[in-house]
Design goal:
With 257 residues, this protein is of the alpha/beta class. The chain has one domain (7-256): Protocatechuate 4,5-dioxygenase, Chain B (3-Layer(aba) Sandwich), CATH 3.40.830.10. The chain starts with 6 loop residues before the first strand and ends with a strand. The chain has helices at 21-33, 83-92, 109-118, 136-146, 180-195, 198-202, 204-207, 223-230, and strands at 7-11, 39-48, 53-54, 100-101, 126-131, 154-160, 239-242, 245-246, 249-250, 253-256.
């Protein structure tokens, strides 16, 4: 019998996360404490596409970043075939809603960077699903539709960054001081997550301090709602496994049962 997996929302960082002993250590320890998944289904901020699209097994990684050391563009993460999971996910979508099986798209850095740390042996099938909307309630319903996968041993991950105001950062160092808009949004989200207040979290545009600086675009925040939808009950407070800041951005991450 498969173990019921939790669902996660993680900050995925940029490729230099791989060289950060603190954060990479936190992610590695977290993964070691989880039951071993039969597969991973991950929704990254870096693939916005509707209708729902699914990655191709054995496709090369997507190096969707610029300005980093050449070695990051040579990295690989060859995981086992995830075709069976792709077929299962497609079958879970509502009748009449198309699902696009992408023929050549591999994992982007919102998927492979954290997974290289969490599952470095690359011996677990990984399927990436696109982020088809930014509507929190539609994403909650999508996460709820995916929830049964957890009973099949599938680890569902929403991958983003709890704050992501890159245009408003004044320095790019891992240990850079977090600006006020980042700390304020982080504290607001931490409180709402601790209370399981999904409606508060969904009303971030009008209720969250630090907006719009914390999220001038919102694709790094909204994968959270896939995770909350996949929870046994979306309004149950989750376990905030990682906190603190990286380059001034909140790396707060969540595990829900």
């Amino acid at each position: 019998m498969n173990t019921r997996m939790p669902a996660l929302y993680i900050g995925h960082g940029a490729p230099p996360l791989l060289d950060d002993p603190l954060w990479s250590g936190q992610l590695a320890t977290w993964a070691q404490d989880l039951p071993r998944p039969t597969a991973v289904l991950i929704v990254s901020a870096h693939w916005e596409s509707a209708p729902v699209s699914l990655s191709a097994s054995a496709a090369p990684l997507v190096y969707d970043f610029g300005g980093f050391a050449p070695r990051y563009y040579r990295m690989t993460y060859a995981t086992p075939d995830a075709t069976a999971l792709a077929q299962r996910v497609a079958a879970m979508m509502p009748d009449g809603e198309p699902v696009h099986q992408h023929a050549s798209r591999g994992l982007d850095h919102g998927a492979w960077v954290p997974l290289k740390i969490m599952y470095p042996d690359a011996d677990i099938p990984v399927l990436q699903m696109s982020l088809p909307t930014q509507d929190p309630y539609k994403l909650l319903r999508l996460g709820e539709r995916l929830r049964p996968l957890r009973d099949e041993g599938v680890l569902i991950i929403g991958s983003g960054f709890l704050t992501h105001g890159l245009p408003f950062l004044t320095e790019f160092r891992i240990e850079a001081k977090a600006p006020g808009w980042s700390t304020e949004f982080d504290a607001w989200a931490a409180d709402a997550l601790a209370r399981g207040d999904v409606d508060e979290l969904a009303a971030y545009r009008s209720k969250a301090p630090g907006m719009p600086y914390a999220h001038p675009t919102v694709e790094h925040y909204t994968p959270l709602f896939i995770t909350l939808g996949a929870a046994t009950a979306a309004d149950t407070p989750g376990d905030q496994k990682v906190d603190g800041f990286w380059m001034g951005l909140s790396k707060r991450s969540l595990q829900v049962a």
